[in-house]
Structure formats: structure tokens, C-alpha cells
Specification:
The radius of gyration is 19 Å and the shape is elongated. The chain has two domains: 95 residues, Lipocalin (Beta Barrel); 92 residues. The chain has an eight-stranded antiparallel barrel. Helices cover 5% and strands 49% of the residues. It is mainly beta.
Length: 204
Amino acid sequence: LPCSAMVTAADLVGWYSLSWKGGAFEVCLRPAGYFFCSKFQAPARWELVDNVIRIDWAKFGKYELTVDAATKSMTGNAVPKNEEDPGNWRKAEFVRPLSPVEALLIGDGAGSEWDFQWSDGHFPVQFKADGYNHFKCDEFPAHAHWSLSEDTLKINWAQYGNYELKISADSKTMEGGPIGGDWSSDWRKASFTRNLIDNKVMEA
């Protein structure tokens, strides 16, 4: 392919509709080679090699798809390729780039750290951009996760409860409180501190 038809990994970051014989669902190519799918979560990675996306989806298999530089659409197959298997093919269509809020949370690819505040003080928390969207807090440790819908963030903090906060990408802040609570008195806020460093470490 001529150089003008080549794409870079940064060009491909964003959301795609991945289809196969069983249907279609959204997946996200995150910065630094992190691959995320809300429906099928796993410690997954992706890389671009000569206009071919290679996906290592852990227990969900390995895939290779060739990228069309003009449309960012992709066609390929599960690895190993088996043309006799009607379920071997995969296609992906570009849906949308990361939103400003997503880009803020995900950072350079590994996630971001925030100063989390409530009426009794403040402490650092981390929004991991791994295959499970882990939420980490050393002061109140739990097997916790985060999810995002447009600019609304939800934190499932296990024994510490569930929270909802609205994020402002412009001010790099968020505010809200416990789901179902009275936010006028039982509030939560956070402000962006830093991007997490991508060290290729996966958490189960």
C-alpha cells in the first residue's frame, strides 16, 4: 500500500460496531493498545501492524482485521483463519471517536487519577481503562468498577455503595452523590489529578 493509504494507531482510536454471524455489538479501541467491550469484558489488547489490526481478546479469542484507511472499516477473521467455518469472519464499522469525557477518563490509555471529595475529607481514586473498567481506591479498597453514559459516570463501589456523578470535560471535575441519595447533604465531587502511566499491567 502507498504511504498515503496507511493509518496510524492513533487514527483508529474510537468506537466500532463489530459484527459476526451472531450479530453486532460495540467495541472500543482505546489508546495505548487497550481493547474494551462492555458486553464481553476481558484483559484485551490491540495493535496495528501494516494496516492490520491484531486483537488479543483473552478468553474470547484472537482476531485479525484489515483496515480500510478511507473509512476505518475493517474486514477479517478469527485466528486461525478457517474459510470452511461460517462463523470465522468478522467486520467492523467505525461509529464515533472518543467523547471529550471518555478521553479525559481514559487519558493516555491506562486511565486517570482524581481527587475524590466528600463531607469527611478527600482521597485519591483511579479510573482504570483496562478491560474491566476497574475503579481503585486505596483508602476504601473494594472490587469496584466504573461505567460511563455520555457525561454521566456510575461507580459500583461494592460494599461502599453505588454513585453517580456528572463530568465536565472543560473543568476536569465531576459532582454527584449516592444513587437514590440526597445530594444536597450527601454529595461527592472529584477533580482531575493526572493520567495514569501505561505499564501494560493487567488486573483480573
